[in-house]
Amino acid sequence: MHTWNPVAIMQLRWEIVTKRESMWVSWCNMVLLKDKSFWVVKITAASSWSRRNVLRLKECLARNLVYNIGNGRATSLWSDPWINGEALTIKYGARVANYVDILIHTKVSAVFANRQWAWLLNSLDPKEIDTLVRQKSIEKGPDVIQWLSKGKSFSCKVSWQVMLQILPKVALADIVWFLNYIFKHNFCFWLTSRNAHRSTDKLRTYGVVVANQYMFGYGGLELQLRYGTNVSTNVGFEGYADHGWRKQHGSRKG
User: Fold this and answer.
1) What global pTM score does this model have?
2) CA–CA distance from 74 to each of 17, 128, 144, 219 (Å)?
3) pLDDT tens-digit series, residues 110-128
4) Spatial distance between the Cα atoms of 15 and 30, rounded to a whole number of angstroms
5) pLDDT of residue 165
6) Rounded CA gap, 88 and 82, in Å?
7) In angstroms, how far apart are the furthest CA atoms of the chain?
8) Domain spans in the chain, listed from the N-terminal domain onward
């Protein structure tokens, strides 16, 4: 779930940058972006929760986009991450537009003619930028934004797999999830590792119970609250025996 939420929001960002025709995208452009480019709008102290989540992880979105330049009329020369997933203003700084004497709102179409790259005559000679830009081929038709590689559109499944590759493996993964595990037992252990078992601690604070004497701070009353049954304090330890865990509170009764 921790990974899936950013992926779901990533799809919303994808729909914004590809200008999908929908009421939601129109609302975002008018209310959240105020008709500005998605790539130049910044998070401020006054930004709402929804606006913050939409604008976050821009870099993650940008490096997975593939821009196919056609007529160059829909792609911003400086703000859009159309070269290797990075905007020219991010790579060279915001002053680069003044240095080469090209307006910040200029489209890519202004720097090529007859399907050949050609910087404006009144600009200085940006050799490094010119070399970088010439790596992009100019194709027929309008500009098209694609996902990960040419010819592909956004997919939540593929995006989720990409996000998983970024996240490191959790240290307890092999202990919690293993072959022939008992789901309820391992789920309880996983919740404990996430510090999610707090019911007895809260009840102890309120004076309802005296102390929590169960392994991992979980058992007895909490098990009854969650599962409606009286379960032994040694829940799950038989399942962990193969992984080096030892029973420290006696054998299961009954």
Assistant:
1) 0.62
2) 11, 24, 9, 60
3) 988 888 888 765 555 567 8
4) 15
5) 64
6) 9
7) 89
8) 4-62+153-166, 65-147, 173-243
Separation between Cα atoms, residue 230 and residue 26, nearest integer Å: 54
% of the chain at pLDDT higher than 70: 72
Are 74 and 107 a contacting pair, CB within 8 Å?
yes
Number of Cβ within 10 Å of residue 35's Cβ equals 6
Query: First CA to last CA across the chain, in angstroms?
Result: 37
Residue 211 to residues 14, 76, 144, 199, 223: CA-CA distances in angstroms? Answer: 51, 63, 63, 12, 15
Please state, in angstroms and rounded to a whole number, the distance separating the CA atoms of residues 70 and 115.
Answer: 9
Please calculate the CA angle 226-229-235 and round it to the nearest 5 degrees: 80
Helix (H, G, I), strand (E, B) or coil at 83: strand
**Structural Rg of the chain based on CA atoms:** 27
Q: For residue 136, which of 80, 96, 179, 187 has the smallest C-alpha distance? A: 80
Q: Which residue(s) pair with 116 in the sheet?
A: 113
